[in-house]
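pasting input
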Amino acid sequence: GAVVSQHPSRVICKSGTSVKIECRSLDFQATTMFWYRQFPKQSLMLMATSNEGSKATYEQGVEKDKFLINHASLTLSTLTVTSAHPEDSSFYICSAQTTSASLSTDTQYFGPGTRLTVL
Amino acid sequence: KNEVEQSPQNLTAQEGEFITINCSYSVGISALHWLQQHPGGGIVSLFMLSSGKKKHGRLIATINIQEKHSSLHITASHPRDSAVYICAVRWGGATNKLIFGTGTLLAVQP
């Protein structure tokens, strides 16, 4: 149980285009989802926290108009990188947290990540 | 200074060796996580600790809340243990955000 998927796993796009990354909890309901980015040889950096049905809370320094987050259902959150630039190239990872009593409510379950390359 | 520090940053071991990775933090926490990230990037949660010690197979994690320190031990290491091991702490307040260490790159050679 507690599987989180991300799609796509890799994406290459041209500068100026928008890219949508999906994060799904496959076998549980995710009341909270987190979006991280990770640069090479660096640790994860939290970008935003999203709760189902409400607006995402962005970390300081993260542009909400550039990184659009939607958490429309208890199993799906999307991150859209708008007008992507080469400096947005990174590894994007989502994680999900649940209030389900059958799982650990204190654990974040991580997705496999999406590698974005902007040319 | 990072709020979560790990040591060593890089570690090379021979198969079968006992391995210890350390994590120190400077904030009040409600829980500490040990995560494993393989070369492909996927992250697996190994342990979540708020006190004491936990064991799963060849992995052991301990935490000393007073000293703000945790260790991850791997017994009888194997090449498949090669990965980045990341310590992450959850603040003690109402937030459920994690603060991550920079990771320890472990290479276990056959």
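fyi The radius of gyration of chain B is 13 Å.
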